Structures are given as structure tokens and as C-alpha cells.
Amino acid sequence: MTRITLVRGDITEQHADAIVNAANSSLMGGGGVDGAIHRRGGPEILAECRALRAAKLGRGLATGAAVATTAGRLPARWVIHTVGPVYSRAEDRSALLASCYRESLRVADDLGASTVAFPAVSAGIYGWPMDDAARIAVETVHGTPSAVTEARFVLFEARAYIAFEAAVAAL
Ligand code: ADP
To answer: Which site in 17, 47, 76, 90 is 20 to 30 Å from 109, CA atoms measured?
Structure first.
């Protein structure tokens, strides 16, 4: 059974076996969580992302998929990169957002990671409304069987923490 915990803070500072990156499909870095991870983690992570692109992800990482690299200078051992969907009012992309969490847990199991820190995937630059992003995140992690003992949501902003608290309370 995976225990869900919530903390306010910066995901790059987390001591966990793996931290999840809200990446984009290029895996070549970006803003938000992605920028912070590459900045603090150093060039090793980007070099591994390049190698992954060259070896098996020529067209990039698909939305909803996840893949791991080591974590460079970060305290975590691994970074699990996942690509959240851009929010759309016209189209329901919730299944893709849920897939990010499910696939990240699957990759964590493959790695043997027991503690995994997640950001609020898609709830920043990708525009997903925070309450809905929190509900999908919490329900999906709660409903996905895995060997991960702790899934820690690391929330940068107060409003994100409040949304995740409400989502956990509603389980
Ligand atoms: P996306 O492109 O998937 O929307 P973002 O990185 O833009 O991803 O934002 C996802 C969430 O992560 C937002 O709520 C944002 O405020 C938050 N965030 C940004 N930087 C950090 C960080 N260093 N640690 C944890 N959360 C962060």
C-alpha cells in the first residue's frame, strides 16, 4: 500500500529514491520543475536524456509516458521524466494525466524505488486547473498498485498544497 504524503517545497531538494519531472516530449529541458531539475541537477541529466532520445525515443517521449535517468547532483537517485498533457477545454485529456502518474509508478517499480516525489504535473505552464489536477493525481496514485511505499506530492505554491489536501481528504 502506497502512503500518500504532502509537503510544501522544492522538488529538487527532496531526499527520495526518485523525483518526477514534469518534462516536455523533447526531454531537452524547459521551464518550471523541468528547468529547476536540470539547473540544480547539472548537465549529466540532460546528457542522459540526449542518449535516450538517440537510442529509442527519436520522436520524443509521448504524452502520458515516463522514462528514468539518474539524478546528477540532486539528492534523489533517479529522475523519472513524464510528459503531462497541455490542458484543453475542448477535449478531455484526464486519461493522459492519470497515465503520467501510473507510468511513473511503473518506472519506479522497475527501478526498485520505494520513495517517489511528484510535482503537480500539468498544473503550471500546461495550464491544468489545480483542483482537478490534484484530484486526478491523488486518485490515480491511490488506485495504482505498486511497491512504492511513499508517494510524496511536493507542492510549490500554497494553493497547490490546499488543493492536494482537499483531494486527499476526499479519498
Ligand atoms: P507543466 O509544464 O507540466 O505544467 P510546470 O513545471 O510548469 O509543469 O508546473 C507544474 C507545477 O509545479 C506547478 O504547480 C508549479 O508551480 C510547480 N513547480 C514549479 N517549480 C517547482 C519546483 N522546483 N518544485 C516543485 N514544484 C514546482
So the answer is: 47
